[in-house]
Design a protein that fits this description.
By secondary structure, the protein is an alpha+beta fold. It is built from 4 helices and 5 strands. Strand 2 and strand 3 form a beta hairpin.
């Protein structure tokens, strides 16, 4: 025995998170959509962010007449809400929990949230990047 005290293994705190996939739905009557973003919210760390991007070629393949500018504006608005930007109006104010509640609420616009899913993570930003790459990319 060398007299060294064994060091405890470092602990990594896992935090619960929720996420929604943002879907571009060009025509509600056809019920077709393309995933264009992911919003991840972690209450414990007050993390709320949007990941992903719209691929114009994929969107055009789904809906040739789609207003790509409107989709980009809707995604920019969602990002502003995530960031608590006052320019997003009432939706951009309040706690991250309240802003996530706004973003996950059902709506009948070209950009719609899917169902809420969840998990645990030690790094919300890395989890968001992984989800965006696997669900939108």
């Amino acid at each position: 025995m060398t007299g060294d005290t064994p060091r405890p293994e470092p602990t990594t705190t896992r935090h619960a998170y929720q996420y929604v996939v943002l879907r571009c739905v060009p025509r509600a009557d056809r019920e077709e959509f393309l995933n264009v973003g992911v919003v991840l919210y972690c209450h414990a760390t007050e993390f709320l962010a949007l990941g992903g991007s719209c691929d114009p070629a994929r969107l055009r393949a789904l809906a040739p007449d789609l207003d790509l500018g409107a989709v980009a504006e809707a995604l920019a608005f969602a990002a502003a809400v995530c960031g608590g930007d006052p320019g997003a109006g009432a939706a951009g104010r309040g706690t991250p929990s309240r802003r996530f509640g706004f973003l996950k609420a059902p709506r009948s616009t070209v950009l719609r949230p899917g169902p809420v899913h969840g998990g645990t993570t030690t790094d919300p930003a890395a989890t968001l990047a992984h989800l965006a790459a696997s669900l939108v990319g």
